[in-house]
Amino acid sequence: MRSGDVLLKMEEVSKTFPGVKALSDVNFTLRQGEVHALMGENGAGKSTLIKVLTGVHPMDQGKVYLNGRPIVARSPLEAQHLGISTVYQEINLCTNLSVAENLYIGRLPRRRGAIDWKKMHADSEQLLRRLNLNLDVKKSLSDYSVAIQQMVAIARAVDMSSGVLILDEPTSSLDAQEVQQLFAVMRKLRDEGMGIVFVTHFLDQVYEITDRITILRNGSLVGEYETSKLSKSSLVTHMIGREWKEEDEHRKTESSYTPEVVMAAKSLTRAGSIKPVSLSVRKGEVVGLAGLLGSGRSEFANLIFGIDQADSGVMTLGAEQFQSMNPKKAIRQGIGFCPEDRKIAGIVGELTIRENIVLALQAKKGIFNYIPLKKQQEIAQRFIDLLRIKTPSMEQRIDNLSGGNQQKVILARWLATEPKLLILDEPTRGIDVGSKGEIRRLILDLAKSGLSILIISSELQEMIECADRIVVLRDRMQVGEISGGDMNEASIMKMIAEGGGTSEQYPQTGS
Amino acid sequence: MKLERMRLGLRINQNNIIIFSTLLLILLLYGAGSVLYTGFFSWQVFFNLFIDNAYLIIVATGLAFVIITGGIDLSVASVVAFISVVSASLLQQGMNAYAVMAICLIIGILFGAAQGYLIQRFDLHPWIVTLAGMFLARGASYFITTQSIVIENPTYLSISKYKIHLVGSNFISVSVIIALVVVALAVYAAKYTEFGRAVFAVGGSEKSSVLMGLPVPRITVLVYTISGFCSALGGIVFTFYMLSGYNLHLMGMEMDAIAACVIGGILLTGGFGYLVGPLLGVICSGIIQTIVMFQGTLSSWWTKIAVGFLLFLFILLQRVIVIRRQRRRVINHGSTMTPPQLQPLTNAEYSKL
């Protein structure tokens, strides 16, 4: 076979999960000797496509051909036997075993019934040399960095594969230098004729390594493009799915912030998570954090609230300086945080609305300082009225409410602690249009009353409506800031795509 | 080259440091005993460590496989007692000694396999299943008899009395040979069979093992079967030693077996350890017991106190190693192998606030 021949072909693949059409009639073609990026926003169907291909989920409809022959993989193991190997973001190896064992376990070489360690070590060294790796294969895998472990996982996959290698976000926990190491290996494998499917959120990486891009949106195929012929901005447009129209935009008209700085973060950094970000929020100001998924938006919010610890950088809250933060301290300092996935990190489904509302306040006061029931009811009623939470009673279990009302309860929870700064990560995701509008209005009202808000949203329009200022992140880096009249979807998308011209100043070594 | 390999073979790393500390401890304890008490430093005292603990070595070695997969088997002591009662009562009824041994081993295998199947098939916690197994085996022995049955079978008596002479007039028993063979087989299986390495893989990460295509369900059932088999074999050896079957034998011995594994460097979290470890762990507590015996005035509970203290130390040591390993993973970049270092906790930042 020659380079360029079709290696893997998926035709008209459809997959429905209860209530969601995850994939509809998607075509995907992988050729010999190419690195093929699979792009799309969250929920576009990338991972479903991979999972269907590798047998994690059965497909409802469609055909898969490998080297021209139709195949059906019913389990990841079967896919592996067919020659389709996958390396996931999370490394699926045993770190307590040696490098060599991780490469060969399940098929250890034997001599007269016993494991032939000598042959295994020699084979391992040879296999790793193919990937330009020179490791002590007898050492346990835990002695090596995540990047090397990732490479060992790839080596195992390559050795078991018959030409198709799927890399599902392999770079998300690697630093720039490690990414280069990985790319060198990918190029080598490509030149040897392998077909590599590369899933990532990093635009720069796509342009650096891939030959073709397949874009998915809402479970449908947008198209297949040659990387060199697709500009970054049209890639982003294809992913997000619509051209921006000026007349759609309602910009925030009046700002209510005062010069007093509530929170200032200076060069907050966390290795493998986010590069230095500096940001200050004034009293009554709404600041938006824009960027694609995986750009570091949520990671930055986690640093501020102390869910993750910053490696370096200083935070100033009011008059005090902090080098490390934790959620308890953050609450006491007047920060509230509505996390991205309210189902997992926000609501406590078994508790009532009242209990959910007083939760953070109780945490702030300490568990021994019990809030009397009467007081709790007062607080709950106040916020049910204020936020217009639609419920027959405050003693309803919260999981009986609609998404929008659940979100309001979480807002109420943090408002009850009387915060100075409220961080909202995707406050309107998964709720209906009417509730979205209401939540947006609430955000504006709260800002007017003097609360500072940091808002993260995938919907640019939402941020343009609410924010006084938008900070743009890309590839875990702060690339620019837009405020006032310059804020529109076009300018933000341009900055996301091009990096606002500041990206070159950031060091690429990133160790 | 050869010299270099030998040196590398003895290189102390984080995987074998506990084994080395246990060996060092054995030497120190034995040395201390020898200096303090006359007659301590003799071959027979040393051999007696093995003779008195042969059953425990076998049981702990079987248990080690379970612990390496990240599980636990609490039923071992009850199985030993149950086997002692079963063999004593069968022998009392005049059954052939070798047939009795075969039946005992089959009971052990079935018992272990059943526990393993329940744990694997219904995804139950091994603590619960083997705790139930522990009560069941102990209860079943009451069901057979509540009395202690003395064994008078000539085959059992002759195996029990048989002395294998080593180094002059000093001797070991048949049980010691059995125990050493079990340890040797276990060491071989762990290092040179696909099953042995898979046991370590499952202990390292069950999820990864599944994704790497290992037959995790079969391995899980198999390790509990091995533990059941070793408990039964330990039961037979214990019966040689005691020459009686009694359901109150060895109450709480499962904890001694777990302690031996821990002191021998088998990590309770799974994935790490050498199969020679349980033997060393047993010898270690055996020496402490002997010292207490030679001392004469101390109550035998001092053995428990000393073993308890040791356990604490070794678990602490294990924890430190695990923490260092995690830290090293963060510190290490690329293929540059920087030596591991423990970083002081940054308490300063906390206290400042």
UniProtKB/TrEMBL annotation, chain A:
<feature type="domain" description="ABC transporter">
    <location>
        <begin position="256"/>
        <end position="500"/>
    </location>
</feature>
<protein>
    <submittedName>
        <fullName>Sugar ABC transporter ATP-binding protein</fullName>
    </submittedName>
</protein>
<dbReference type="InterPro" id="IPR003439">
    <property type="entry name" value="ABC_transporter-like_ATP-bd"/>
</dbReference>
<keyword id="KW-0813">Transport</keyword>
<keyword id="KW-0547">Nucleotide-binding</keyword>
<dbReference type="GO" id="GO:0005886">
    <property type="term" value="C:plasma membrane"/>
</dbReference>
<keyword id="KW-0067">ATP-binding</keyword>
<dbReference type="GO" id="GO:0016887">
    <property type="term" value="F:ATP hydrolysis activity"/>
</dbReference>
<dbReference type="InterPro" id="IPR003593">
    <property type="entry name" value="AAA+_ATPase"/>
</dbReference>
<dbReference type="InterPro" id="IPR027417">
    <property type="entry name" value="P-loop_NTPase"/>
</dbReference>
<dbReference type="InterPro" id="IPR050107">
    <property type="entry name" value="ABC_carbohydrate_import_ATPase"/>
</dbReference>
<feature type="domain" description="ABC transporter">
    <location>
        <begin position="8"/>
        <end position="243"/>
    </location>
</feature>
<keyword id="KW-1003">Cell membrane</keyword>
<dbReference type="Pfam" id="PF00005">
    <property type="entry name" value="ABC_tran"/>
</dbReference>
<keyword id="KW-0677">Repeat</keyword>
<dbReference type="InterPro" id="IPR017871">
    <property type="entry name" value="ABC_transporter-like_CS"/>
</dbReference>
<dbReference type="GO" id="GO:0005524">
    <property type="term" value="F:ATP binding"/>
</dbReference>
<keyword id="KW-0472">Membrane</keyword>
<keyword id="KW-1278">Translocase</keyword>
From TrEMBL, chain B:
<dbReference type="GO" id="GO:0022857">
    <property type="term" value="F:transmembrane transporter activity"/>
</dbReference>
<feature type="transmembrane region" description="Helical">
    <location>
        <begin position="166"/>
        <end position="190"/>
    </location>
</feature>
<keyword id="KW-1133">Transmembrane helix</keyword>
<keyword id="KW-0472">Membrane</keyword>
<feature type="transmembrane region" description="Helical">
    <location>
        <begin position="221"/>
        <end position="243"/>
    </location>
</feature>
<keyword id="KW-0812">Transmembrane</keyword>
<feature type="transmembrane region" description="Helical">
    <location>
        <begin position="98"/>
        <end position="118"/>
    </location>
</feature>
<protein>
    <submittedName>
        <fullName>Sugar ABC transporter permease YjfF</fullName>
    </submittedName>
</protein>
<dbReference type="Pfam" id="PF02653">
    <property type="entry name" value="BPD_transp_2"/>
</dbReference>
<feature type="transmembrane region" description="Helical">
    <location>
        <begin position="300"/>
        <end position="322"/>
    </location>
</feature>
<dbReference type="InterPro" id="IPR001851">
    <property type="entry name" value="ABC_transp_permease"/>
</dbReference>
<feature type="transmembrane region" description="Helical">
    <location>
        <begin position="55"/>
        <end position="86"/>
    </location>
</feature>
<feature type="transmembrane region" description="Helical">
    <location>
        <begin position="255"/>
        <end position="288"/>
    </location>
</feature>
<keyword id="KW-1003">Cell membrane</keyword>
<dbReference type="GO" id="GO:0005886">
    <property type="term" value="C:plasma membrane"/>
</dbReference>
<feature type="transmembrane region" description="Helical">
    <location>
        <begin position="20"/>
        <end position="43"/>
    </location>
</feature>
<feature type="transmembrane region" description="Helical">
    <location>
        <begin position="124"/>
        <end position="145"/>
    </location>
</feature>
